[in-house]
Specification:
Layout: H1 2-15, E1 30-34, H2 38-44, H3 49-70, E2 74-81, H4 89-112, E3 115-120, H5 128-140, E4 147-155, H6 157-173, H7 184-190, E5 201-204, E6 223-226, H8 236-247, H9 257-264
Parallel strand pairs: 1-2, 1-5, 2-4, 3-4, 5-6
Helix pairs in contact: 2-3, 3-4, 3-8, 4-5
This protein binds 3-methylbut-3-enyl trihydrogen diphosphate (IPE) (2 copies) and magnesium ion.
One 3-methylbut-3-enyl trihydrogen diphosphate binds near residues 40 and 80.
Amino acid sequence: MVENANAFTTFASRNMSLKEQIDIQRLPRHVAIIMDGNGRWAKQQGKMRIFGHQNGVLAVRDTVEGAAELGIEVLTVYAFSTENWNRPKLEIDALMHLLVQTITKETPKLMENNIRLATIGNTDSLPPKVAANLKKCIDKTANNTRMTLVLALSYSSRWEITTAMQKIAEKVKSGEIDPKNINEELISNQLNTAAWPDPELLIRTSGELRISNYLLWQIAYAELYFTEKLWPDFRREDFYKAIIDFQQRERRFGKTSEQLKSEHA
Ligand code: IPE
Ligand code: IPE
Ligand code: MG
């Protein structure tokens, strides 16, 4: 009997599209992505690194659309880290220019797809033109409700946590809060991501097995998914694969497998 059931599952998954294999009732609410590998993608073709970043935009568009269509509530993508300011000026300038261009070009698509744009990170450090364009797009899409697309820009988790600690210290100093009342919720509420649930799934492309200062507090219990695909080659089907993988895992949160089974029985 069990064997037959397994045979059926194998048969079914072979004949079902990736999208159909996803259980819509068990989607992660928040998915975070480290979009990595643009430079290597370009290099493989003998092109400048910026060519990879330009082609990465297509991957963002397809993934965002695929995620929104599925019903993901929040998608947070790492677009530029605090540490990326250490790259050659030429690459930084080109990336900033691409950002302005892309935001302007993609705003109508975000409107059409009912997607809201938000940012996390030290946006004060961005060139004024980038900041102005971002603000325009954020304001325009503010009432969209299907999905929130969060761009991590000039973001690093340690910067975010340090800033949060400064804010909390100020509140303690002014007497607004008692140190005894500092708890996880209060800390979460001081982070840039306060408005959203923690990501349940973190995807990193390009085969690198590290977190690179991304959402360290928020991913405490996230499932990690790594793929060899370079970001410009990533498409919604790759996103579906990550979701399917996520749905096959047992998230125990410190409990035993037996406990979980009896809770669900
Ligand atoms: C990710 O691709 C995009 C950014 C960090 C802005 P990379 O530019 O890091 O590409 P690789 O990792 O060098 O291939
Ligand atoms: C992480 O990628 C940052 C972004 C994807 C924006 P990097 O390519 O900068 O990460 P490291 O330096 O290889 O860890
Ligand atoms: Mg990289």
